[in-house]
Design goal:
By secondary structure, this protein is mostly helical. Strand 2 and strand 3 form a beta hairpin. The longest helix is centred in the last third of the chain and has 34 residues. The chain starts with 8 loop residues before the first helix and ends in a 6-residue tail after the last helix.
């Protein structure tokens, strides 16, 4: 991949800042400029995480790590294209983009000029690729808080997996559905944390409202792998739109971009399927190359992402109308259809076939966990609706939100 940056990058960044400022003002979103490393609750959470990972760690080691993070954050702030970006999440997006760029180069996919990455309260559990009239630089926008929400979802799912005695540092967990159901009956903590994250994202508008907690030491690695595969797929999908030229033709006006004289792709279902396939291949290459993961522990993050889309849509619908229904979209296929298409491609392209079947089997376990989560959360959500709780306004403003 070429690292070329279009001379109009600053113009794109200016448009992005204007769009973010207008969105924050319209929805009354408060700027999150406070350094989280100055918040006592966050510092205590980081201490718990540090001590859970470093069994022989002490306070001196923790404060040394904290000082390093403060220095890194100062550098990260300067890298952000606008003052509305969260430095930590923006740095993560850059890191994931570089990993996906290496995968794109291996696949002979050209991504130039380098797109501008950003976040926005779009009212969709997804991303959007935007083209501007004034520059060839594309903007890839992810829903504000999406990576934070993904992190919390992955921690809840991973902590639901029954652990087995591992071989050294090798991850080992049971995929037996009876073991899974038994574990959640014995300990509902993962379900409660899932519910907290879901309500924080849908009702309060951002996952940072959820109560922070450290993953148990025996599930931290599993959660990290699941989260990374999910994040890589989300960003890889949007890169797919750019690399496949979906922004180069058949452009239509979009309400998000109207105020800044921009154009955004009005993709059809076929383009969404194509971007899914590119995103999956980019992600699997990155996970196997950089993390040494097999196909199963690479693919399951993509499958979980679609499950999360459906659950958020059901939650927005239930709290908004009293009925848990899936949004009907003209531009995006149903999530189940997208999942099935990826499974078909796995079976057709991955060798040996047992590897593809293993990935699909693990995806089925993810489905079972989400189904158990939803079954436990549905009635409390109905109760919140009856009490007058409604989704944050930008969720209801999305054109697909009316099921």
């Amino acid at each position: 991949m070429s690292d070329a940056v279009d001379p109009g990058w600053e113009s794109a960044a200016s448009h992005l800042a204007f769009l973010q400022e207008a969105t924050h003002r319209h929805y009354g979103i408060k700027s999150r400029s406070e350094n989280p490393l100055d918040v006592p609750a966050v510092v205590e959470h980081l201490r718990q995480v540090y001590l859970s990972i470093h069994a022989d760690g002490d306070e001196a080691g923790f404060h040394q790590m904290l000082a390093k993070q403060r220095d890194e954050r100062e550098i990260a702030v300067k890298r952000c294209p606008t003052p509305y970006e969260n430095p930590e999440w923006y740095g993560l997006m850059l890191s994931q983009f570089e990993a996906l760029s290496r995968s794109a180069a291996e696949m002979n996919l050209r991504i130039a000029p380098k797109p501008l990455l950003g976040t926005l309260a779009t009212g969709r559990v997804n991303g959007v690729a935007i083209g501007l009239h004034s520059t060839k630089t594309r903007i890839i926008l992810l829903e504000e808080g999406l990576f934070g929400f993904a992190n919390l979802m992955c921690k809840a799912v991973a902590s639901s997996m029954p652990q087995r005695e591992g071989d050294g540092e090798r991850l080992s967990f049971s995929t037996d559905l009876a073991d899974l159901r038994s574990k959640l009956l014995e300990d509902e903590t993962p379900i409660l944390r899932f519910f907290d994250a879901l309500c924080s994202y849908v009702v309060q508008g951002h996952p940072h409202h959820a109560r922070p907690y450290a993953s148990p030491p025996n599930t931290h690695g599993l959660s990290s792998i699941l989260r990374e595969s999910m994040e890589l797929f989300i960003l890889g999908h949007e890169i797919g739109h750019v690399a496949l030229g979906h922004l180069d033709g058949n452009l239509a006006r979009n309400a998000i971009a109207e105020s800044i004289d921009a154009e955004t792709v009005q993709t059809n279902w076929q383009q969404e399927f194509e971007a899914d396939l590119v995103g999956m291949h980019l992600m699997i290459r990155a996970m196997t190359r950089d993390r040494g993961m097999d196909v199963a522990l690479s693919y399951w993050g993509a499958h979980l992402f679609f499950g999360c889309i459906e659950i958020v849509e059901h939650t927005v619908s239930l709290l908004g109308t009293g009925k848990a229904e899936t949004w009907r979209s003209h531009s995006h296929p149903p999530t189940a259809a997208r999942q099935e298409r990826l499974k078909e491609v796995l079976l057709a392209t991955v060798q040996p076939r047992e590897a593809a079947e293993g990935a699909i089997s693990l995806a089925g376990v993810v489905d079972e966990i989400l189904a158990l989560f939803w079954k436990r959360c549905e009635e409390p959500l109905h109760r919140l609706h009856r009490e007058g709780t409604r989704p944050a306004q930008w969720w209801m403003a999305h054109p697909d939100a009316e099921a």
